Amino acid sequence: MVQEATNLECDLVKNLNLEKHVTNIGQIERQCKFYSKKIAILTL
Q1: Looking at residue 24, what is its pLDDT?
Q2: Which contacts of 25-29 are long-range, i.e. CB under 8 A and separated by 24 or more positions?
Q3: According to the lineage, what is the superkingdom (predicted)?
Q4: 14, 20, 21, 22 from 5: Cα distances, Å
Q5: 11-18: long-range contacts at Cβ-Cβ below 8 A with a sequence spacing of 24 or more?
Q6: Which residues have C-beta within 8 Å of that of residue 38, sequence separation ≥ 6?
Q7: What is the chain's alpha carbon radius of gyration, rounded to the nearest angstrom?
Q8: Backbone angles phi, psi at 22, to 5 degrees
Q9: Which pLDDT band holds residue 15 (cuts at 50, 70, 90)?
Q10: pTM for this one?
Q11: Greater pLDDT, 11 or 3
C-alpha cells in the first residue's frame, strides 16, 4: 500500500517536472525520495 502511494507520488513529480520542461533525472529521483519519506512518516 505504501509502495503504491510512493509510486503515485513519483509519477506526479515526474509529470510536474515534464510540464516545467525539467529533464534532470537526478532531480526527479531526489524529489521521489523526499516524497517517499514524507509518505512513510504519514503512514506510521
Answers
A1: 66
A2: none
A3: Bacteria
A4: 14, 23, 24, 23
A5: none
A6: 9
A7: 11
A8: -90, 125
A9: confident
A10: 0.34
A11: 11
Q: What is the pLDDT of residue 17?
A: 63
Taken as a whole, the chain contains a residue count of 44
Count of domains in the chain? 1
Domain that holds residue 37: 2-42
Which is nearest to 11 in space by CA: 37, 32, 42, 41?
A: 32
Neighbours of 11 (CB within 10 A): 11
Residue with cell 537526478: 26
At residue 24's C-alpha, the angle toward residues 5 and 33, to 5°, is: 30
